[in-house]
């Protein structure tokens, strides 16, 4: 027990307590008769300590690790998702701190609301709260998604957010892990379940179709989530992004000229071919209209001034992911190029285009 305590970075008293309450009980004995941990015991201890360090209470941890339907791999995926969410919260908090430091350096007054942002009290409101204002259903993209759903009557929307692109003429069930996003869903929106894509709480083939729109890159394990969609539905429709094409970042002037860090954001993202192969899907390009109503990252390719607006960027997770310094540099450079006419000189060919292929793809299985 002492050796396990040393390796795990906890006290022997903690392990004795876990034993006493039945949370982690050593199931083996040494030759001298002392209690010892088997490999399964250590695995359970690892899960207990990981959940504890994420802030779960002992009763919550017991319920999590005693769930017989969840294996070690599922626990790891769940923990990875929780840690990614914590990382995003930390990144957003750093952004809020930098914002206040910048304001104070300029002698600007910092409001109580802004001070609470730094502490995280309004952190997700600051990030997710922008979604209803700028992340709306674009009818042309919606038409392509809904056409891919075919004759499906029951639809599961995975990573549903605030409800964009949910077809009103079908029986929709939504899945969304973020409480902030769920709270912003309209009163008449489809019922929403709190769950992660990697572990959908539904029986096999429960739905005619499962859809996911601009959310796969937020999942802890995109391929596992896609396979879960394939398990619970007869048809799968996913709007995602193609990073397979060589120099894919050059398709869009914003990533090519101002935000090369975008490639780092998607460094661990599965290939489009790999995701398609995982669920037996075909791919279909999704052009972005020049006046796209959905304020996704690529939406303003012909309206570059929009990227100078803070409320527009706040509804795009990319900016939180890259961090405040790349964001500040990109915005300053773009503003300067718009004023000087350099942006227009580089991108004058875009003015007459009605839509652009910027890498958005539908996976249809």
- Number of discrete helical segments: 18
- How far is the N terminus from the C terminus? 51 Å
Strand line-up in the sheet with most strands: 5-4-3-6-7-11-8
Determine the fraction of residues in helical runs and give it as a percent range: 40-55%
If you average the pLDDT, what whole number results? 87
The biggest sheet amounts to: 7 strands, mixed
Specify Rg, calculated over alpha carbons: 24 Å
Broad structural category: alpha/beta
Overall shape: it is globular
User: What's the β-strand tally?
Assistant: 11
Strand content: 5-15%
- What is the N-to-C succession of helices and strands? HHEEHHHHHHHEEHEEHEHHHEEHHHHEE
| Low-confidence region ranges | 120-127
Give a written overview of the molecule:
Residues 120-127 have low confidence and may be disordered. With 365 residues, the chain is α/β, with parallel strands linked by helices. Helix 3 packs across helix 4. The protein is globular, with a radius of gyration of 24 Å. It contains 18 helices and eleven strands. The termini are far apart. Helix 10 links the parallel strand 4 and strand 5. The strands form three sheets. A seven-stranded mixed beta sheet has the order 5-4-3-6-7-11-8. Strands 1-2 form a two-stranded antiparallel sheet. A two-stranded antiparallel sheet has the order 9-10. The chain has helices spanning 2-8, 12-20, 39-53, 58-65, 72-105, 112-119, 123-128, 131-134, 139-148, 179-183, 222-232, 253-258, 262-265, 272-279, 310-314, 317-322, 324-340, 342-347; strands at 28-29, 35-36, 154-158, 171-175, 192-193, 207-213, 233-241, 282-285, 288-289, 355-356, 360-364.
